[in-house]
Amino acid sequence: MTAATTPTTAPVEPALRVRSSGTMATRTLGIATIVTMGWLVAFGLGFSPADRDQRDAVRILYMHVPTAWLAYLAFVVTAVSSAMYLFGKKHSLGFDRVAGASAEIGVVFMALTLVTGMLWGKLTWGVYWQWDARLTTTALLFVSYIGYLAVRGLGGTHDQRAKRSAVIGLLAVIEIPLVHFSVRMWRSLHQEASVLDSDGDVDMDGLMLFSLFVGVVAFTLLYVWLLLHRSRVIAMEDLLDDQGLDRALDQRRAEFL
Amino acid sequence: MSRWRIARLVAGKDLRIERRSRVLTNQVLPFAGVTMVMFAFALDASNVLERVAPGLIWLATLFSMLVLVQRSFAIESDDGALDALRVAGVDPVAIYWGKSIALAVQLAALEIVLLIAAVLLYGAEVPLGGIVLLATTLVTATCGLACVGTLYGGLTAGFTGRETLLPLLVLPVVAPVLIGATRAVESALGTDGVALSEGWPWIGLLAVFAVAFGAGGALAFGPLIEEAT
Q1: A256 found inside a domain
Q2: What distances in angstroms separate CA A194 from CA A125, A191, B16, one per listed residue?
Q3: 10 Å Cβ neighbour count for A21?
Q4: Is A94 among the domain residues?
Q5: Residue A108: half-sphere exposure toward Cβ, Cα within 13 Å
Q6: Has residue A8 got a pLDDT over 60?
Q7: In 3D, which of B155, B153, B218, B165 has the Cα closest to residue A164?
Q8: What is the pLDDT of residue A4?
Q9: Residues B195, B200, B203: CA angle, nearest 5 degrees
Q10: N or C end of chain B: which has fewer CB within 10 A?
Q11: Residues of B with Cβ-Cβ distance to A151 under 8 angstroms
């Protein structure tokens, strides 16, 4: 009733009015992603020829190779932004959000890589899984980043989350080469040189190579689009954490006045 | 006080608590022993057991290590002891070293018992020529495991849900130790006719692992326990 209580019922800050993580740039990017994905479908399933040995199974690679490549890129981005957060003077939470968003996308892409790789393996090798060095490293990496995401979900303040996950993100830089090296040493000492090369063809047909290129472009666009949206959504979640309770209290208080 | 002296004091404190509470001897070692018996149930035929004995020793070590790490940080976070150490201005690097040393001593005791269990239960034989390689493997692998265990234990200390998170974080990281130590012990014991000389390259891997995580852990431990409240 009094003049002193009126400020609490004032309109909320503009930041809380944000209803979408989309901007002009992300919309353009989204359209470009859809168009290139359409191309990928057309080239991957239609125009590109079937392989002489692998036949139509080769088409899986147009998805498998780009997702694998981008999953690794995503984890590099996570490590770099973790370092930027930890060693930057301002400890900007923006880097933490990019690291988290990138790790989430990386885990999804790596899951896609493993699934498509297993399907391809079943068709070409006759088995879903081989204890090949590259496969084993990828599987361990996948589990490690699921652990990273679990650490992000431990709770606490945003700064606690950021510091803790940044340390884990950087420890992965020590971990990955050691895991990869040990698994390679394990296989090379105990198994004859493997004829199974997860790369597929070395000499690729021109149209196949182009289809693969389209795939890499399409998935890169998808990655950037997802990264922008996801890191903005994390920023909104953080804002809600910070201001949501105050805002709810203000609203409740206003009802009684 | 020098960093090394503080580390020794922290290690001494942990081991004294251990000696008085006897969690290692009364709970962890019996748990490891039961695991070894369970492996025998699962793998049945005795000739298989002899062949896979080195791997089983290290698997049992890893599982028991998870219990030891939980215990190592439960004694710190339960009574706010870690906060007290920090408030007292104790160097976090020294705490890390101290707790790693204490964990390493307990792990070494565990591994020796498991090795004896493998000899008694699985019929594994320790040739005299392999003892040097075996001892070196135990020492380097234990250092690596202790460094990783203390680091991730510190990370998850004081959070609800740490019991479930710790294995998920630690097991993928220690995969190189499992691979390397198993191969090295295989050649030390001469399992399946593996030559003794094949074991030494693995010691290199284990040593690199221990040094990398020892250094990384010493750097990261300070920021981590500052956050864990």
Answers
A1: no
A2: 12, 7, 52
A3: 15
A4: yes
A5: 11
A6: no
A7: B155
A8: 43
A9: 140
A10: N
A11: 155, 165, 169
**Domain residue limits at B218:** 3-227
Higher-scoring residue by pLDDT: A239, A21: A239
Length of chain A in terms of residues written = 257
Q: For position B135, what pLDDT does the model report?
A: 92
Q: Is there a domain that residue A180 lies in? A: yes
pLDDT digits (tens, 9 = 90+) for A23-39: 888 888 899 999 999 98
Q: Specify the number of domains making up chain A.
A: 1
- Of B179, B201, B223, which has the smallest distance from its Cβ to A163's Cβ? B223
Return left, alpha or beta for A129; rule: phi > 0 is left, psi -120 to 50 is alpha, else beta: beta
- Residue A18: inside a domain, yes or no? no
User: Are the CB atoms for B167 and B59 separated by under 8 Å?
Assistant: no
Question: Which chain A residue is nearest to residue B158, measuring alpha carbons?
Answer: A154
ipTM for the assembly: 0.84
Model confidence, pTM: 0.83
Q: What is the DSSP string of B144-170?
A: HHHHHHHHHHHHHTT-TTHHHHHHHHH
Radius of gyration of chain A (CA): 23
Number of independent structural domains in chain B? 1
Report how many Cβ contacts below 8 Å link chain A to chain B. 80
**Which structural domain range is residue A33 located in?**
24-194+219-243
Nearest to A186 among B171, B173, B179 (CB): B179
